[in-house]
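Wed. Picked up where I left off yesterday with Small, acid-soluble spore protein, H family. The coffee machine is broken again, so keeping this brief.
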Amino acid sequence: MEENRVKQILSSSADIEVTYQGVSVWIDSLHDDGKFATVHLRGPLEERSVVEIQDLLEEGR
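Structure written out below (tokens, as returned):
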């Protein structure tokens, strides 16, 4: 995924499905370097991970 699309998703009120390694995640924030984001799994677990945005996929695109 590109940096601009991550910013669009973060500012959107729509529920946009994003996956990381086949698992549905929420994007919490984009890091200042524009290459990494903090995400957490959709669902009851709130564990956060830092991932490369190039590894994020928007479902349906």
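Quick read: The CA atoms of residues 3 and 34 lie 6 Å apart.
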